[in-house]
């Protein structure tokens, strides 16, 4: 039976009007159950309804025709696009997901989308058949089903809540952001997932961010001088660095690097020479690192807390010709013998009156005329970074120029960093984490803000003052921040995302809910790169996420043979990109060969690979405990103890057993205002651990020995071992139930 255009046209208008309201309901539903199920359900329903739609339309019955149109367009199609209003909100800067402006633009899209069936009515009017509309609906639905897996996972735009759709101040600032720099296409604003205030972030909400705009540069351009020059031409006077009261634009950072290179060259420093630095977070430290890179020299930023033998080891091992130090740190040279290669010591400020004898100490010379960049290659060493030395003497890791480029590219993509982001870190600049935060800002066009140091009481206020949108946290920092009393500063910030390796499992959701910050797991090391990433997973503590496309990972046994999924072994890595990993340990060829044997870098981490391709951390191999034939993960025991409400922090490690092998010992720091008896810890563990993993020894301590980077120095705890103050479960007569 023919279908009159007089019947079709009003029906399509009514169906579109119904859709304008149904999409709001479906959009709200998608906030609760996720976008994918809502959109896929609508898409599949549209495909399946295509043939009933054809039959209903062909009846010519006005009621059935309108019913067919309302179900197909108003409901099925409404479910498909009901998840989309947030995109229009982001595009047009409205303040609410369901505001009049957002709905207005969405209505325009609805009616624009209705043009094709309207055009299709020309054929039914001429032929008296409804098959063109049916074909349109079936094809549209099928295409949407095909692409929904990728497109529907796109998260709520940065700064907006998933539940209310409110746009944060950061999102509103996009409209007044600096003019896009010349010479590069305007980027797509990367989205981040469920960056909400009060809504837990789930693993299924995460979608990889867009690729970094500088990905794919010719390898010869992946050097610090080339990147500084390129981005200075692109962004010119846009702010790149803020450290204290100092602000530097992209152009000024390049200019200062060239001037510092001129200063170093004027003092006889040549390409390949090492320049050591003993400084806290300050602009001069960044200038020196970049100046060395510009000149082709090698920066050796040292931990500002090193003393005695550790300081002597780093200065001697690196063969540094010059040491640049803060005045109050120079005194630590007095107790060590002057290394043979060290020619002079420069102070950032006045020379202290009690400068150590035997060292030529003078103020840092003034900047000179800028030098042109040296010809450096992507594989040339840019910096020697000394590891924390948690298990022995620290080793100097030779980090090439391109490794820093890849750090910047990889983390930029993992965190969805855009040019209007502000990256705030208070981690030490001598560490790879903070140095590579600068690289993320450099390659993405964002702004790098460096705090002086971590302060739990001031962290959120300092981040808010910096107008930060992205920050960087370690597991211990997560615990400390969450343990503080709740206050208005918890949400008075713009941070949407944090890179937070080793987040305590029990704090994943509570931290995200309280502070409104999406936590992202990242796995890497000074020797490698950020090789794996993903959302923190409270269901699977220790999850490292997925290995990124630029890298390969394998779990092997003691003979470097790959083991099946689910079987613990050592994680080994290699890169598909040239110079994305360190090139070795400076002056330690034997250690280099050992770590990179069989052309894989051996991480020393005991992990297993799950069937879905993600990796789970078990323990550091050197921290593994073997008690009476059973292998025990110190990491898993620490996770359980940390669940106790009175525990501030804990470390679990092996001590010798009278019966050979190991006994399990735990050092525990009690939260302020709480009291904790060792027996209570044992009872807590007994319910949650296998009997053989429950600690025998408990030490209640005031603080754990930490490196400057917040890692627990378990070697110190193991060396201290059982003391007269240690509580012994067996000596106390406590019998575990089995």
What's the arrangement of strands in the largest beta sheet?
2-1-11-10-12-13-14-15-16-21-20-18-17
Give the C-alpha Rg: 30 Å
Shape: globular
Poorly predicted runs: 86-103, 109-123, 143-208
Number of E strands? 27
What summary fits the major beta sheet? 13 strands, mixed
Tally of separate helices: 23
Helix content percent band = 25-40%
Q: What is the straight-line distance between the termini?
A: 78 Å
The averaged pLDDT comes out at 82
Fraction of residues in β-strands: 15-25%
Structural class: alpha/beta
Architecture blueprint of SSEs:
Layout: H1 5-33, H2 35-59, H3 62-81, H4 85-92, H5 100-113, H6 115-120, H7 122-127, H8 131-151, H9 169-173, H10 224-235, E1 239-243, E2 246-249, H11 250-266, E3 274-278, H12 283-295, E4 298-301, H13 308-318, E5 322-325, H14 327-330, E6 344-347, E7 361-363, E8 381-386, E9 396-400, H15 401-415, E10 422-425, H16 432-444, E11 447-450, H17 459-465, E12 470-472, H18 475-483, E13 497-499, H19 508-515, E14 518-523, E15 532-535, E16 543-547, E17 551-556, E18 569-575, E19 584-585, H20 589-595, E20 601-609, E21 615-620, E22 625-627, E23 630-632, H21 634-642, E24 647-656, E25 662-670, H22 678-686, E26 697-701, H23 714-720, E27 727-728
Parallel strand pairs: 1-11, 3-4, 3-5, 5-6, 6-7, 10-11, 10-12, 12-13, 13-14, 25-26
Antiparallel strand pairs: 1-2, 8-9, 9-19, 14-15, 15-16, 16-21, 17-18, 18-20, 20-21, 22-23, 24-25, 26-27
